[in-house]
Structure formats: structure tokens, C-alpha cells
Design a protein that fits this description.
mainly alpha; 0% strand; globular
Length: 316
Amino acid sequence: MTDEPVAGVIGRAQGTRAYLAAVLLAFAGIAFWSTNALAGSTALATLDLGVVLVLQFTSATAALCLIAGVSALRRRRLHGTEAAALRGRDYAYGALVGFVGFCGTQTTQYVGFAYAPIVESNIIAYAWPMFAAVWMAITARSRHTVAGFLLSLVGFAGVGITTVAQHTGTSTGSTVGYISALASALCMAYYTLAVARTRTSPIYVMLTGGACGIVVSAIMALALHTRWDPSVAWLAMAYVGVGPCAAGFLLWSAGMAKSRGRLAPLGYATPVMSTCVLLIVGRSFGNPIAAVGAILVLLCTIGVLVNDRLSGAQQL
């Protein structure tokens, strides 16, 4: 009788530590992501889109190869038996998640950064909770998922307003930029929902995505006649590759694994934090109409987060 309460206390303490560790990992990833738009837009001011993408994926893949090498050595010491249980379809699915979720997210995001005002395109690209909310409403119908779906409609209206704003004659953005930013949000929503189902490691998922990204970005660079003029801006993209790309995605994936996906709503803080970073350093909206649309997307994102937290609290 006396052992049970002690065991319960120990179990709760261990669970609390694991939860806090997951929170720290997730927020570390978000912290990297919040600097992505600033570093990327700074590089795009002097570099072609093709070289920006090549530098991003090359530096990210190099960092991931180093991490994968260290992990392989550790598995060898522990007689890594986990890989033996994986099948070909597990690797194929992990590669698909890497291609769509990592390569797709980063490529379309930077196309958005290049062809639309950075503040609006950043908000739209990180508004992936809109798609996640729609998916949850389809697969798990409840009062909260319906509320999330209604909030997502507000977000999509904001995207529409922001896109239409480029026809007012005062916006510097293009439809290609806004659509690409929206595609990035769709890819990131897929990654968040699919990565928890992969049996392969997050490093494998991202390595395959990074390799695909190098190929895709190299093709884009050739098609866009990229100028390969080394400059200080290359350092900004090397940081994006190692920081927001490699470290950000890995930390986020680790946090999701430790929390079994329960902390996924924390990712909704990314557009708020990254937008604050851009505004603090002096970046601004393209025009007032676009600002209204972007603010609607931001409110949708915050609303989905609050709704998800209320749902989680009621389930406890």
C-alpha cells in the first residue's frame, strides 16, 4: 500500500519533467523559426532566389549529415536494433513526408518571401493551423473542431483579401507570392500531421527532404539564371539552413515525439513571434488592405490555438 503512492509520485514527477522537456524543445524550434523570415528577406535583398534556396538546403543537409553521423555512432554502440524493424514502405513514407513537408515547405515559403511583401507572406506561410483545423474538422467532428473550422474560414478570407490587395495598385506583391506562401502553409500542415506517423527518424525524413531540396533548388537556379556572386548575405542563408531549417525542424520534431503530438498547438505561436521580429526591425505591411487580410490570418491562428487549448483542458 505504501509503495503505490510513492510510485505514483515518481511517475508524475517523471511525466512532468518529460512534458517540460518537450515544451523547451518545441519552443527552441519556434525561436529558430521566428528568425527565418528576417534572415531570409535580408538575403533576398541582395541574392537571387535560386542561390538562396541552394544555400539553404545545402547548409541544412550538411548539418543534418553531421547529426546523422553522430547518431549512427551512438546506435552502433547500442547495437541499434530499431532500424532492423523498419520496412521499405516505412522509408518510402518518411521520404514522402520529407519531400512534401520539408522541401515543399521551405521552397514555396521562400518563393512567397521573394514575390510578396515579407510581413504578409510570412504570416500566410506560418498560418498552417488553418489547414490543420480543417483536417481535424473532417476526421474528428466535435464542437471544438467545428469551431476551429469556422476560424479557419476567417483565415482563408484574410488570405483572399491579402491576395486581392495586390490589384489595388499600391501593393508590391504578386499573386504568385501569396499563393506560394499559402502552399507553404499547406505543406507545413501536412508535415505536422504526418511526422508523428513516421517510423523512421526525423533526421532521415529531413535528410531526404534536404536532398530533394538541393535538386529542386538547383534546377530553379539554372532556370532563373542565378548569379553566383559570393557575399556576406551567404552567411544569412547558411544560418537559415543550420538554424531554422535543420535545428528548428529537429527540435520541433523531438518536442512532438516527447509529447506525442500534444504540444502541436505551440507551433501556432510562430507567426506571432516572427511577425513581431519583423515589425520590431522596421519591416511593414505592403498596404493597408493587405494589412487587414494579414491581421485576419493572424487572428485566425491565435483563435485556433485558444480553441485547441480549451479543448485540451476539457479532456483532462
